[in-house]
Automatic annotation (TrEMBL), chain A:
UniProt cross-references to SUPFAM superfamilies, sorted A to Z: Ferritin-like (SSF47240)
Main EC class the enzyme belongs to: oxidoreductase
GO MF assignments: monooxygenase activity
The enzyme's E.C. designation: 1.14.13.227
Native organism: Marihabitans asiaticum
Protein name: propane 2-monooxygenase
InterPro entries per record: Ferritin-like_SF, Phenol_Hydrox, RNR-like
Automatic annotation (TrEMBL), chain B:
SUPFAM superfamilies recorded: Ferritin-like
Protein name according to UniProt: propane 2-monooxygenase
InterPro entries to which the protein is assigned, alphabetical: Ferritin-like_SF, Phenol_Hydrox, RNR-like, YHS_dom
UniProtKB keywords: Monooxygenase, Oxidoreductase
EC number(s) reported in the record: 1.14.13.227
Top-level taxon: Bacteria
Molecular function terms, GO-annotated: monooxygenase activity
Keyword Oxidoreductase found: yes
Domain YHS: 423-459
Catalytic activity, reaction form: propane + NADH + O2 + H(+) = propan-2-ol + NAD(+) + H2O
TrEMBL record, chain C:
Keyword Oxidoreductase attached: yes
Gene3D superfamilies hit by this protein: Monooxygenase component MmoB/DmpM
Protein's name in the database: Phenol 2-monooxygenase P2 subunit
The organism of origin for this protein: Marihabitans asiaticum
Family listed: Belongs to the TmoD/XamoD family.
Gene Ontology MF annotations: monooxygenase activity
Keywords on record: Monooxygenase, Oxidoreductase
Presence of the UniProt keyword Coiled coil in the record: no
Length: 335, 522, 104
């Protein structure tokens, strides 16, 4: 009997859920779409939050950046949970392979002194910056409006923990299997002058309650720091005999490229909103430019220290150029 | 894929699981000096909880990001393979009966949105707790909850293509009367401070009642030929065991940090036990009435998963800290004999305004209920159904004429009876600032009177209908506002799903009023 | 619908049961066998799709026994692929063993 049934053609009553069909027509929808669109409750909230009685449980007034339709923002990577963890599983496996290779060949022990100092003094302390990113993005995952936004933010927050662990594992390897360098890195983070601007920015952004502004600031710093450490210095490492650095950098760089895709898509959605687009563009120009200016200010001493340690790596020049490009992208002016 | 450990035999100097976990997850915090710590974590004081040492938080799972991603990716690979195979092979035709899916309709409408809410608010804990250990555990749970929401949607998406009642769940959650039961429950938790939320959802919901809620339910899926639901259920439960651990660790952590926390936590346990328990009323009727092939009765699962495991096990452990079993637990125990019958009888009468269908139990079904409930079913409930059988034979299936009055706290219709007396309806009244509020039980009245300023804010669907805020004054207008389509509501026999099912099954299954006991199964 | 094996009642002398629920599948059978081997006083109950193992006071899952039953390497994190639920407290989750017990 079961055999017969399989040959029977059964017409579906509908191809997708009503809320999906209203937007895209009644046709089969992707798992990203069905698992993300319109899933946040939006009306008849029962009680005011005790932690902020002026708002609703979910509220679009937690940022100056708003969308007429929250779901005009879609993650271009179409990450729902399954492809997200699958991608990250591959990412961490690839990093583990690199680290095994680095350790098997003793490449960390063979790093030139300047490079070792860059890693220990400047790169390892950034695990704390990743930890700040985790907090900032968790705030966005809670206070954002719409499930496509909160989902992207939560994955990105989780990524920051992953990044901190990648840096920590490098630190453990560089410290000969001990956590000594991680403890030292924390002291650098707390006290070294080249890192204080970054730490101040991190603390001030954590307490920013507007998740959109907080994201802009985090992103501005990321764009200078990641480009400098994992693009620019990667090239430098290749030519100056520091392959261990390059092997680590490639993984951070590939994560960064992936992460920027959802953020750029969000900026685009803000700018192209049919009703709020002009307002959002003006806000992006104003706050985006301010975020880049602050980022350049706080990353400059960090870059200068790199130049010092490596004997001229044009790190300061690099971040200055990047900052000008990012600023121009926000303000819509030519670079 | 084999899941062999990485280079286990190499390197003697590898850190142990514990040392590695601590190195990677702890020590990331620092004392801020450019802003005040209170400014960074502003919500930690107002509930009165005192934390002296956040580092005392233990996370027994010791999962690092690489291990988390590896195992979660593997779980999803297995799950989605099952979903794809089931969809391609028209697996839905192997269910015991299309009426089984009523349980799953309530699931996607009433439970899936809670998973989303949990994603949001565990992110809140991951932002607002001042310790990296609990923050990381909360962040894992925040994205796990996205997983649960999505695997539920993706599992039920295939049924949505062929059956009624699944298609408009997000809007229904925000609007439909019986769905304000889970919605008001969860929004109550979302509006709490971080520690109360942790006890409400992390402990009371995820530890105290999770087994009762989900385990029999997933066995029910397995027993009724719903392989995808069983698979997502078990797969989600494997995350759930991590969440249970978070809940249990949370309560012990709070109790150990300061003695002054004990009475506060006790109050939350008292409140959230009853609040969560009232939501399980929907599960009780699913188990006893909606599964064509029965797994275990509500009473049996309550005894096993709550009385034996929680009262007999957990609360003995918590007694060490001076914690006593939840207030009103005796009322819940008395109700185990009658809960599912009273709830289903109500849903049966009001399903004309619901996104699921109901039907009177068959003779065989009633015999099973008599066996499962020897002290109550034949005395109180069989007579109702025998009378209804006559109505149906006379062509007059009973629907209630109006709309039910809802409890101000749990928002379940006022259908419950006095503890220990199945014939007298319970109704409690409380006055607050000159207004009278009605509650369904001692538990809900106690909760109301603890925080009247909160519960008077409730968006009670039936009140809202009478006030004209739900599409219009007539039933058809309200149903349209609910987004219901033909076939979603009412009686199952003769419904669109029933007619389709009969056509698809051919003559062999023509008599589905009494589901075929030989089909499907574990 | 449920069958119970190894049936002595463990609810004696105030020792409270702890338990673990595992999905019944080909993959998990060696894990279940390992738990039975390492916890001689346990009771095993089967219900659709599930195996529920209870024991007075304590249940231990050891890496060595699971690896022996499985015939391959197995890290304790993998237990997350099998577990559906538990009651008790997870006291230890280390490289070599997992222990479920009540604290007090």
């Amino acid at each position: 009997m079961q055999y017969e049934l399989k040959t029977q053609v059964i017409e579906p009553q509908r191809q997708t859920f009503t809320h999906i069909a209203k937007r895209y027509g009644d046709k089969p929808a992707s798992r990203y779409i069905e698992g993300s669109i319109d899933v946040q409750p939006k009306e008849h909230f029962q009680y005011r939050p005790t932690w902020d009685p002026t708002r609703e449980i979910y509220d679009d007034s937690y940022s100056v950046f708003r969308l007429t339709d929250a779901y005009s923002y879609l993650d271009p990577r179409q990450y729902y949970y399954a492809p997200y963890v699958t991608a990250r599983s591959g990412h961490h496996e690839a990093f583990a392979t690199s680290l095994e290779y680095i350790e098997a060949r003793g490449l960390l022990e063979r790093l030139p002194d300047g490079w070792r100092s860059v890693l220990a003094e400047l790169v390892l302390p950034l695990r704390h910056l990743e930890s700040a990113g985790q907090l900032i993005l968790c705030g966005m995952a809670r206070f954002g409006w719409g499930a496509t936004v909160t989902q992207s933010a939560a994955y990105s927050a989780f990524d920051r923990v992953g990044n901190a662990q990648v840096l920590s594992r490098v630190g453990i390897a560089l410290g000969g299997g001990t956590t000594d360098l991680l403890a030292e890195a924390k002291e650098h983070w707390l006290h070294d002058a080249p890192l204080q601007g970054l730490r101040r920015m991190a603390e001030e952004t954590i307490v920013e309650t507007d998740w959109g502004l907080a994201l802009l600031r985090l992103d501005a710093v990321d764009r200078l720091v990641y480009d400098l450490l994992y693009q620019h210095l990667d090239d430098e490492a290749v030519v100056s005999g520091a392959p261990a650095y390059s092997l680590v950098a490639q993984h951070m760089a590939s994560w960064f490229a992936d992460n920027r895709r959802w953020i750029d898509a969000l900026y685009t959605a803000w700018r192209e909103d049919p009703e709020l687009g002009a307002t959002n563009a003006a806000l992006l120009a104003e706050h985006g430019a301010a975020a880049v200016d602050t980022a350049l200010e706080v990353v400059t001493p960090f870059a200068a220290r790199i130049d010092e340690l490596l004997g001229g790596s044009s790190a300061v020049d690099r971040i200055t150029t990047t900052a000008a490009e990012v600023r121009a992208a926000h303000t819509g002016a030519a670079a | 894929m084999t899941l062999a450990p990485e280079n286990k035999t190499k390197k003697a100097k590898k850190l142990s699981m514990k040392a590695r976990y601590e190195a990677l997850t702890r020590g990331l915090d620092w004392e801020p000096s450019y802003v005040e710590k209170d400014e960074m974590f502003p919500h930690l004081d107002y509930e009165g909880i005192k934390i002296h040492d956040w580092a005392a938080w233990e996370d027994p799972f010791r999962l690092t990001i690489d291990a988390y991603c590896k195992y979660q990716a593997e779980k999803d690979k297995r799950l989605y393979a099952v979903l794809d195979g089931f969809a391609q092979g028209q697996g839905h035709l192997g269910l015991t009966d299309a009426s089984y899916l009523n349980a799953m309709k309530i699931f996607i409408q009433g439970v899936t949105p809670l998973e989303y809410g949990a994603h949001r608010h565990f992110a809140y804990l991951a932002r607002h707790f001042a310790g990296p250990g609990p923050r990381f555990a909360a962040l894992c749970q925040s994205i796990d909850e996205i997983r649960h929401m999505q695997t539920e949607i993706h599992t039920l998406s295939n049924y949505n293509k062929y059956y009624s009642g699944f298609h408009n769940w997000p809007e229904e959650y925000d609007r439909v009367w019986y769905l304000s039961v889970p919605k008001s429950f969860f929004e109550d938790a979302l509006s709490c401070g971080p520690f109360e939320f942790l006890i409400a959802v992390g402990f009371s919901f995820e530890y105290l009642l999770t087994n009762l809620l989900f385990v029999p339910f997933m066995s029910g899926s397995s027993f009724n030929g719903d392989l995808p639901t069983m698979t997502f259920g078990f797969s989600a439960q494997s995350d759930e065991s991590r969440h249970m651990t978070l809940g249990l660790e949370a309560i012990k952590f709070l109790l150990e940090q300061d003695e002054a926390n004990v009475p506060i936590v006790q109050g939350w346990i008292d409140k959230w036990f009853w609040r969560s328990y009232r939501v399980t009323a929907l599960v009780a009727q699913m188990l006893d009435y909606m599964l064509p092939r029965k797994v275990m009765s509500w009473k049996e699962s309550f005894e096993l998963y709550f009385e034996e495991q929680m009262l007999g096990g957990l609360f003995e452990d918590l007694a060490f800290y001076g914690i006593t079993p939840p207030r009103h637990v005796e009322d819940a125990i008395k109700e185990k004999e009658i809960l599912s019958h009273q709830v289903y009888w109500t849903l049966y009468q009001f399903s004309f305004a619901a996104a699921f269908t109901t039907s009177a139990p068959s003779d065989e079904h009633m015999d099973w209920l008599s066996q499962a409930y020897p002290d109550t079913f034949d005395t109180h409930y069989r007579p109702l159904w025998e009378k209804e059988k006559k109505n149906i034979e006379a062509g007059g299936r009973h629907f209630a004429p109006g709309l039910p009055q809802l409890c101000q706290v749990c928002q379940v219709p006022m259908l419950f009876t006095e503890p220990g007396d199945a014939t007298t309806f319970a109704q409690r009244e409380s006055e607050f600032e000159g207004e009278i509020y009605h509650t369904c039980s001692n538990g809900c009245q106690w909760i109301f009177e603890r925080e009247p300023e909160k519960y008077r804010q409730a968006w009670l669907p039936v009140h809202q209908i009478y006030q004209g805020n739900c599409g219009g004054p007539t039933v058809p207008e309200v149903l349209e506002w609910y987004g219901l389509q033909d076939g979603d509501a009412g009686e199952y026999i003769g419904s669109r799903d029933h007619r389709n099912w009969q056509a698809w099954q051919g003559e062999a299954a023509a008599d589905t009023a009494t589901p075929d006991e030989t089909k499907a199964g574990a | 619908m449920q069958e119970q094996t190894t049936a002595d009642d463990p609810q004696t002398k105030g020792v409270r049961d702890v338990g673990v629920v595992i999905q019944e599948s080909e993959n998990n059978r060696p894990v279940i066998e390992a738990i039975e081997a390492d916890n001689p006083g346990c009771s095993v109950m089967h219900s659709p799709g599930l195996v529920r193992i209870t024991a007075p006071g304590r249940i231990v899952i050891t890496q060595e026994t699971v690896e022996e039953k499985l015939g391959r390497e197995w890290e304790t994190h993998e237990f997350q692929m099998a577990i559906v639920s538990y009651f008790g407290n997870i006291q230890e989750w280390d490289d070599d063993e997992i222990v479920i017990a009540w604290d007090h």
